[in-house]
Amino acid sequence: MNNGTFYSVGVGPGDPSLMTIKAVETIRTCDVIISPDSGGKANVALNIAKQYIDGKRVEHCPMPMTKDQKILDESHAAAAGRIAELLDQGLSAAFLTLGDPTIYSTAMYVHKRLAAMGYRTKIIPGVPSFCAAAAAANETLCEGAEAVHIIPASYSGDFLQLDGTKILMKSGKSIGAITDTLKNRGEEVFMVRRASMGDEKVFRSPEDFDNNEDYFSIIVVKQK
User: Fold this and answer.
1) pLDDT digits (tens, 9 = 90+) for 7-22
2) Alpha carbon of 85 to those of 4, 62, 122, 136, 202: distances in Å?
């Protein structure tokens, strides 16, 4: 029996209509849908794609939200092991992930393990959340020769010294500190919470930011 193929599928930032045709086709043709489970009440990626899953088998893989590398390694190894069992049965599997799989995605930790084990793996790109955030704000991210930097909000360096546009992702717990840093500096700054989702909100300046610690908050700092 031929082994199945593992797909890391980007389902986009939140609005199901922003899913790519290829993502939809992959979900519809795969035998099993893999859904990462961080222990929260709702699985956002699964909810985005639910209309295309249509009764397919769904496997939930525990993926705890922690910085403990040992726990992370164990969860990634366990997920890869379980998915390998499915692939050995000749089943194809689609691992759903928010935005694009190549940008801060849990899917890629499993993807790389399976690829190293010799399984066929493919990446299905998706619309990144920061592109949806720029669209929500009706702003460009870069023009001409401007550089773009994608930075985790917990980044310890002085990101303001970087030339070009700075995109701060996963800003939730860092919003308060970042807001204080950005006030009264003169850069063009905006924040979008839950871009393309039903409760999307755009903030036009650091003075307007609130300290709601939402994981789906993106801050964009444009060069003076």
Assistant:
1) 999 999 999 999 999 9
2) 10, 16, 18, 41, 44
Selection from 144, 69, 141 nearest residue 109 by Cα:
69
Q: Which two tokens stand for residue 211?
A: 């300290």
**Rg of the chain over CA atoms, in angstroms?**
19
pLDDT tens profile 145-162: 999 999 988 765 688 888
To the nearest 10 degrees (0 to 180), the angle between helices 106-116 and 69-88 is: 60
Contacts 24+ apart (CB under 8 A), 103-110: 103/128, 103/150, 103/169, 104/152, 104/169, 104/170, 105/8, 105/10, 106/36, 106/63, 106/76, 107/8, 107/9, 107/36, 108/8, 109/72, 109/76, 110/6, 110/8, 110/61, 110/76, 110/79, 110/80, 110/83
The SS3 of residue 177 is: helix
Contacts of 169 (CB under 8 A, 6+ apart): 103, 104, 129, 130, 150, 151, 152, 153, 218
Sheet holding 120-124, edge to edge: 57-62, 32-37, 93-97, 5-10, 120-124
Express each pLDDT in 178-189 by its tens digit: 888 888 787 889
Q: Are strands 32-37 and 93-97 parallel, antiparallel or unpaired?
A: parallel
Yes or no: say if 28 and 9 are a contact pair by the CB < 8 Å rule.
no
CA distance 161 to 141: 17
Q: At 1, is the pLDDT very low, low, confident or very high (cuts 50, 70, 90)?
A: very low
